[in-house]
Amino acid sequence: MKNRLQFVLKYIFGKKKELAVFAVCCVIFLFTFGMYGITLKAAAYPTFVCFVIILTALTVDACMKYGKWKRMQEILQKTVGDDGEFVRILGGDELNKIVDSDDIMQVQLLEVIRKLKESGMCLGDSMNMKYADMVDYYTMWAHQIKTPIASMHLILQKQDSEDSRRLRTELMRIEQYVEMVLCFLRLDSDSTDYVLKEYRLDDIIRTAIRKLAPQFIMKKLVLDYETIDKQVLTDEKWLGFVIEQVLSNSVKYTESGKVKISCEGSKLVISDTGIGIAPDDLPRIFDKGYTGFNGRMDRKASGIGLYLCRRICNNLGHGITAESVPGQGTTIAIELERNNLEVE
After folding, report:
1. Backbone angles phi, psi at 255, to 5 degrees
2. Can you give the pLDDT at residue 343?
3. What's the CA gap between 190 and 306, in Å, rounded?
4. How far apart are alpha carbons 285 and 306 in whole angstroms?
5. Which distant-in-sequence residues (6+ apart) come within 8 Å of 79 by Cβ?
6. Hey, is 254 helix, strand or coil?
7. pTM surpassing 0.85?
8. What is the rounded distance in angstroms from the CA atom of residue 308 to the CA atom of residue 179?
9. pLDDT, position 46
10. Number of C-alpha atoms within 13 angstroms, CB side, residue 185?
């Protein structure tokens, strides 16, 4: 009933010009009859007949257009948030049945819409090809840059000095940035290589710790970690990336004290005694590109690491949350237990 009333009001509003012309014609009609001395009754009768004819014609027209209007509302509801369905409808005959073929403006408007659709699809294909080329290039670059990094590692292993240790630490950071690039490129890829199996959580954690060991040693931080002895359904490589990113941030923003790794129920908890995160920044630390106050102080921060962690956790069916007290430290909790994953 509400839809019908809405249509009637819109239909009447759309016919306001025709109704105004009809009203003016009726006034002229009555005025002319009056000038020739014809009685009002004689003039009102043909005016009333014309009014009934016009009203009947408008009613029939409204009934015919109501069905088309109702069908258009169904199409609009069906295509909300579904671009594929919208493109399918534009390419089909559904709109042809709704458009009035006698109305040249409607026919031309539909033709313009379809041409815009074709142009949009061509532009979309072109952009997708350019994006695919860019992804391929940066993926190739990220893989190729690993060769000189590995060579530098071998050269530095032969030396044991303060400078060589610092260089190894910086080289490790370069490796992390390269892995971050690869991760960023692969997240939206159709060929993302998730392998979901039961893994020992300790094995994943220890791999990340070994990578970051030089940074712990250089900053003389204490690592508080005991064997967790827990199996987790996840992807070893991607969860390892998340843990490594969280640990790296802990080391980066902790000048003294310790980093603790523990398990609380189904949550892997990584806490530190670092500078902490401002309350205003905390809700946004997982947003893309957001660095917050700490990131602005440390101009090398990219605001991508925790964003990638959240995206990966969402893809794996895990959760990730953060708590922090400025000046006391930060705690990151990774919820590992999810029921929507299947073992391969």
Report:
1. -85, -30
2. 47
3. 22
4. 7
5. 85, 86, 89
6. coil
7. no
8. 11
9. 76
10. 19
Residue that is written with structure tokens 């094995």 in the block = 203
Q: What are 29-48's pLDDT values in tens digits?
A: 777 777 777 776 777 777 77
Per-residue pLDDT tens over the stretch 226-254: 888 899 999 898 999 999 999 998 998 89
Q: Which amino acid is at 114?
A: R
Question: Looking at the predicted structure, is the pLDDT value of residue 178 above 80?
Answer: yes
Q: Which amino acid is located at 153 in the chain?
A: H
CA–CA dist 33, 21 (Å, integer): 18
CA distance 233 to 160: 40
| Nearest in space to 8 (alpha carbons), one of 43, 58, 49 | 58
| CA 316 to chain CA centroid, nearest Å | 17
Question: How many percent of the chain have pLDDT more than 70?
Answer: 82
Q: At a CB cut-off of 8 Å and minimum separation 6, what does 19 contact?
A: 12
Q: Backbone phi, then psi, for 152, in 5-degree steps? A: -65, -35
Q: What is the pLDDT of residues 257-272, one digit of tens each?
A: 999 999 988 899 999 9
Q: Which CATH number is correct for 197-335, 3.30.2350.10, 3.30.565.10, 3.30.1030.10, 3.40.109.10?
A: 3.30.565.10
Question: With contact defined as beta carbons under 8 Å apart, do 21 and 15 qualify?
Answer: no
